[in-house]
Amino acid sequence: MSSQPVRWGFLGTANIARKNWHAIHLSGNSVLTAVASRDVTRAERFIAECQASVPLPHAPQALGSYEALLASSDVDAVYIPLPTGLRKEWVIRAAEAGKHVVCEKPCAINSEDLEEMTSACEQAGVQFMDGVMFVHSGRMQRLRELLAEGSVVGDIRRVTSQFSFRGDDGFFSDNIRSRSSLEPQGCLGDLGWYSLVFTLEVMQGRMPHTVIGRRLSKFGHPESPQPIPSEFSAELLYEDGVSASFYCSFLTENQQWASVSGTRGHLHVSDFVLPFFGSESGFEVDQPEFHILGCRFNMESHRRRIVTSEHSNNHATSQETRLFRHFSEGVISGKLNAHWPERSLQTQKLLDLCLESAALGLPLEVD
Question: Residues in the chain with pLDDT < 50?
């Protein structure tokens, strides 16, 4: 067990890493020591731009290769925001170098690759976790508690969600998420992953028995070997009659809502992935009542908002900061958390089945 802060390295300079630059700084138990790119000038530029926005007491070292970062004795853990097509190699190499790993999502091309990745981490005695932030929020903790209580929602019967944004012309021509060689799962991997995670969280890790996926539209980049899903929907069916569905899209404007319906009421989160800007996050619960009084047919709402005092972003209480704080707590304690890689594998398996079901045009059973 160590009381020293966890020393982090960035394996790549993707835009999302800027957010995590600040999160690591705010975590209280972590420090960023190195940033690597295949081009050292790109790493230097990234560091300079982040330092101008959020100055660190000691600027991280700029490295011109990923190998140099993994060989560094000043790095305990790595954050890997590389394209999905490249993640398997570098997660395994990081594990072999004895580095703990936070890996962006979707974690891998398929569940077989992810099993190799998580097995490599387990064998090396290092922690693996995907980069989904909302599961670490205080709001998600409160939501889990309320569902477990059963007094508001009751027995869960239905989970629904949507995560979408509308990509502009530049997105489909220039963004790596439009290229199947780098991001073959398209909107399903980039956005649908979050809906699958939310469903698994609500269902306490229970897997459905059947998956039905539908690719509603696709986009083929001229330089890509295959088209990628640009709109996707899926239905997940459970043994006890519970069902879940989601829709994700690069064509529909910003939406990121999720709802849970049960035998006593329902809850709704309007911003389940990226909390709306502010100093608190929350969700609504409602238990409407229908009354007939003679000729009066009254539907009464009993809506209330459950609020958690935590900032939406760039704060010591925000979900991205809590992610790195939680991860580093485990590293410092020396106790690996098997739940995190297991949940990533569950998500990846469901994602694979969604894609396969859509390709075959058939429902698929979950093993």
Answer: 1
Instruction: In whole angstroms, give the CA distance from residue 344 to residue 350.
Output: 10
pTM: 0.96
Span(s) in the chain for CATH 3.30.360.10: 136-318+347-365
Q: What does the pLDDT read at residue 225?
A: 78
Per-residue 3-state assignment (H helix, E strand, C coil) for 56-111: CCCCCEEECCHHHHHHCCCCCEEEECCCHHHHHHHHHHHHHCCCEEEECCCCCCCH
CATH 3.40.50.720 residue spans of the chain: 6-134
Cβ(78)–Cβ(101) under 8 Å?
A: yes
Question: Which residue among the candidates 88, 105, 218, 349 is catalytic per the annotation?
Answer: 105
Q: How far is CA 271 from CA 64, 72, 150, in A?
A: 38, 39, 23
Paired residues of 219 in beta bridges: 228
pLDDT digits (tens, 9 = 90+) for 188-202: 999 999 999 999 999
CA distance 210 to 354: 10
136-318+347-365 fold: Dihydrodipicolinate Reductase; domain 2 (3.30.360)
So what's the pLDDT on residue 2? 56
**Residue spans of alpha helices (H) in 222-338:** 319-333
Reply yes or no on whether 335 is catalytic.
no
Look at the block and give the residue holding tokens 């099993």.
115
CA distance 345 to 122: 13
Cβ-Cβ contacts under 8 Å for 231 (sequence gap 6 or more): 187, 215, 216, 217, 247, 248, 249, 250, 251, 252
Q: Is 154 helix (H, G, I), strand (E, B) or coil?
A: coil
Which CATH superfamily hosts domain 6-134? NAD(P)-binding Rossmann-like Domain (3.40.50.720)
Amino acid letter, residue 316: A
- DSSP alpha helix (H) spans, the chain: 16-26, 40-53, 66-71, 84-96, 111-124, 138-149, 169-174, 186-187, 193-202, 319-333, 339-360
